Amino acid sequence: MELIGxxxxxxxxxxxxxxxxxxxxxxxxxxxxxxxxxxxxxINLPKEIWITDTTFRDGQQxxxxxxxxxIAHIYSLLHKLSGEKGLIxxxxxxxxxxxxxxxxxxxxxxxxxxxxxxxxIRADKKDFQLVTSLGLKETGILTSVSDYHIFLxxxxxxxxxxxxxxxxxxxxxAEGIIPRCHFEDVTRADVYGFCLPLAExxxxxxxxxxxxxxxxxxxxxxxxxxxxxxxxxxxxxxxVHAFHSELGYPSELLEWHxxxxxxxxxxxxxxxxxxxxxSNNTSILGYGERTGNPPLEAAVIEYMSLTGDxxxxxxxxxxxxxxxxxxxRADIPENYPFTGENFNTTRAGIHADGILKNPEIYNIFxxxxxxxxxxxxxxxxxxxxxxxxxxxxxxxxLIKSGKCEKVxxxxxxxxxxxxxxxxxxxxxxxxxxxxxxxxAQARRYLPGLFESELDKAKEEAKRIAMVIAEDVTHAxxxxxxxxxxxxxxxxxxxxxxxxxQLLAVTNTDGFRISQIYSKHGEKSLFRNLLTKNxxxxxxxxxxxxxxxxxxxxxxxxxxTNRLILTAAFPIRDEKGNIRAVIDIDxxxxxxxxxxxxxxxxxxxxxxx
Length: 608
Fold this sequence. Notes:
The protein has helices spanning about 70-80, 100-110, 125-135, 145-155, 160-175, 190-210, 235-245, 265-275, 295-305, 315-330, 350-355, 365-370, 385-395, 395-400, 415-425, 435-445, 455-475, 475-480, 485-495, 525, 540-545, 590; strands at about 50-55, 90-95, 115-120, 140-145, 180-185, 215-220, 255, 280, 345, 375, 500-505, 510-515, 550, 555, 565-570, 580-585. It has about 600 residues and is α/β, with parallel strands linked by helices. The strands form three sheets. It has an eight-stranded parallel β-barrel, surrounded by seven helices. Strands 11, 12, 13, 14, 15 and 16 form a six-stranded antiparallel beta sheet that branches.
């Protein structure tokens, strides 16, 4: 770390009785204004730049939270994308709930150097104690710097807040923990009257303790702009220049964190790099509060463009996107750059013709080599039977997954689709056939390539059943195997989850030790199950033999004649040995009502 304090200017704190709200730029009752004074600052790209990640912190504030297992897997993908040089230096976590700390522990157990695991806390001593208890070497600290926050939110003044921030930083340094001060709302703050005076004190503390004190410049509302000659506090170039070149804050201790409220999130982040920030804080797919953060995948490509470093395995970007689609069930727009299903698919007829002659004409780069995503074209009148067959093989899910054989130009139905396409252009069409149009024709003439809506509903119902069942299984009440304790808990679950018909716990000898039913008046229907041995039941044998959860096909209940499915999970002791099996019969009709309403992982915190 090169501290360049000898070059810095001195910036005294400007005290104010009333907040500086910059009403000429932020009138609130009108669109924010961009003002210019014609002052430009020079580009000052650091010798080394890198990326940090906030997928597990800010990235979870705009979507259902990830499960600890999902976080652990995503973390491993971040490590893989980071490469040997550690392009993705750090990732930050919330640490307040047991769920947060479980996820953090799973990631720590992987033992990777990159991304380094850090935390985020409020400027509070109790929060800081959590950091020390988890053995973390660095933490972010909420450090609000605009008068909007200091006066209007915190009901304080500049001097008091500066003292509070410096106090928590001193505590961090005393414990040998690197503080990372999140200068919240910096693009509405008094840069010379508060931000730089505070940063100057932080730099002094850093030099005295010989420990880095980082500053994250947070464009909390996305107000940053990159235009030449724009004024502070909105100008990203002048903001970074003020901290690095005027004050002398080392570039390696400066980090940019943006939001996309005005569609400028990526260009602002890239500009922060150019003018002196070494670190760019991002989130996978840009997930973040409100409109989101700088997309991590865009920052990776930007980094490679700026540095010429081709050592990064960019195919991991596609691996991350596929995981988010299949496991996280994220809805990635089809035209989303680098990761959307059709980001490198050309639709214009004239473009499709060019692609056939030379893909370099209309492909941004060799997407097959760099992202594992070969260029694709939409169907036109020039595609022919083979082109239509190729398009179907590239786009139909069952073919892509290997569940269905590829089609050829001789496959039944291809000629009918080709005739429909030809008719479109005979009538004067000039654009390529759209994805939805071609899929509709394929469903009509090649229905065997598609799952029915009922098939999809069945699979979604199974997913929802497994989400609910897994949550129930983790309850500490079940660890007791005490019927009195379990019955009370399971009774609450059955009342809460209207899709459950029967919920039971069976010991390893095959006999029921707890059984709860959902409908009043059905006790007599299930009474004989209390003395029945279940050792020959498939759900029981599968769980004991494999140690894995089981989900059945749909079937009609012998007792209620309802269409149901069974989910079964092992109940283990501290050493991982199976002590019992919990099985849940779900009513299919009720599960159907939950489709698209129960994202994975949202029920765990409400288990009781």
